[in-house]
Amino acid sequence: MTVTWSTFNWTPSVVEFNPLPGPPSFNLTAYGSTDLFVDGGPKHRKIFIHRVTLENLKPGQKYVYHCGSSLGWSPQFYFRVLQDGSSWGPRLAVYGDMGNDNAQSLSRLQKETQMEMYDAILHVADFAYDMDEDDAQVGDEFMRQIESVAAYVPYMTCPGNHEEA
C-alpha cells in the first residue's frame, strides 16, 4: 500500500500506522520520498509530492494511519489490505468524468466507501477537468474533494482527453 500526499513546503515523508483493533497510539512507522513538482503555470507553484510504501501488511487486515511529520500530521484515516489467494474477487467502483463543479457521483462514493463497499476505485479519465488550470489550483480542489474516498481505498486513475501536462 502506498500513501501519497502533497504539501507546499518540504517536510519528511512519514506514515504512522497501526492494525485495528489495536492500541490507541501508532506503533508502526514507514518513511518514504519527497519529490518537488513545479507547476507549468505563470506562478510556477512549488508542490512537494510525498510517497510512502507500507510493507509487510497482513491480507484482509484493517489499519489506521496518518501521514506527515513532526511538523504536522493529517487527520487519521483507515484502509483494509486486499485479501490474497484465489477464493475472493475484488469489489471495484469504476467511473469517469468527474470534475469539481458537477461531481454528482462523489457523495455516493463517499457514503459507499465509508460503508466499506469497495476494495479499490478506478477513475477512468477526465478527473477534475483540466487539473492544471489556474496554476493547478483546480487540481488541488479536486484532490481535497476526493480525499474522503481516496484516503480509505486504493484510488487509481488513467488519463483522458482532459488530462494534459
Automatic annotation (TrEMBL):
InterPro entries reported in the protein's UniProt record: Calcineurin-like_PHP (IPR004843), Metallo-depent_PP-like (IPR029052), PAPs_N (IPR015914), Purple_acid_Pase-like_N (IPR008963)
Enzyme's top EC category: hydrolase
Domain Purple acid phosphatase N-terminal positions: 1-80
GO molecular function: acid phosphatase activity; metal ion binding
Pfam annotation, one family: Pur_ac_phosph_N
All copies of domain Calcineurin-like phosphoesterase, residue ranges: 91-163
Signal peptide span: none
Membrane spanning residue stretches: none
Catalytic activity line of the entry: a phosphate monoester + H2O = an alcohol + phosphate
The protein's Enzyme Commission number: 3.1.3.2
Annotated keywords: Hydrolase, Signal
Family per similarity comment: Belongs to the metallophosphoesterase superfamily. Purple acid phosphatase family.
PANTHER family reported for this sequence: ACID PHOSPHATASE TYPE 7, PURPLE ACID PHOSPHATASE
Protein name, UniProt field: Purple acid phosphatase
Organism lineage: Eukaryota, Metazoa, Chordata, Craniata, Vertebrata
